[in-house]
Amino acid sequence: MTSTGLDLTGITLTYPDGAGRLTALDGVGLAVPAGTITAVVGPSGSGKSSLLAVAATLITPDSGRVVIAGTDTHGLSRGDLTALRRTTIGIVFQQPNLLPSLTAAEQLQVMAHLDGRSPARARARALETLDAVGLADQAHRRPHQLSGGQRQRVTIARALMNDPAVLLVDEPTSALDHDRGAAVLDLIATLTRQKATATVLVTHDRALLTTVDTITEVRDGRLTTPARRSEG
């Protein structure tokens, strides 16, 4: 059995709401083993984005524990959390947010520079990662020269530059048609298994979830019991 890459236990998160507080997450627990994908679905406003933000250590919950690749984040300083995200967590945002003046390879090299890699090592790692997502021949192109699906692949490659133990993906197919969306999800599934990441995929499109291991639903800040997909 694979070890747990991401473990959320008893997560409660509230926001100020007038004189009271609004509960976004209510005692949520979620375990995602390395090398598997858990899809999180649910209506708008159900708590999906809040769950992803807590898992990414971008928001500290009111209570509960977030364990990333064996590291309990409770009590870590802001600097320690930033370092953890840089070395252990990959995040794929809904919009690619690529810098228009940089080539595909340069988008990734920026991430490697943040880790202190030399320019030569950063370039080599960027080209290797672009090859992993099927874009080796597009390394020199800028975002406006790439299709929507290709831009999303660059975003996935950028998130993989630090060999993350945990990969968090927010609505990666929202701007893509069905075929391109299916191709992106197939890629995420393949990379999850190859690189043994614990992947959480937030999506509204259940029709594309044929490659995930577990589907769980968020409603009113609570998770349903995760249903393990049958194999075969």
From TrEMBL:
Query: CDD domains per the record?
Result: ABC_MJ0796_LolCDE_FtsE (cd03255)
Domain ABC transporter, by residue range, is 6-231
Any one GO MF annotation of this record: ATP binding
Look up the domain of life of the source: Bacteria
Establish whether keyword Cell cycle is in the entry.
Answer: no
- Please give the InterPro entries that the UniProt record associates with this protein: AAA+_ATPase, ABC_transporter-like_ATP-bd, ABC_transporter-like_CS, ABC_transpr_LolD-like, MacB-like_ATP-bd, P-loop_NTPase
The protein's matches in PANTHER family, at most eight in alphabetical order, are given as: ABC TRANSPORTER RELATED, IMPORT ATP-BINDING PROTEIN
Name under which the protein is recorded:
ABC transporter ATP-binding protein
Annotated organism of origin? Actinocorallia longicatena
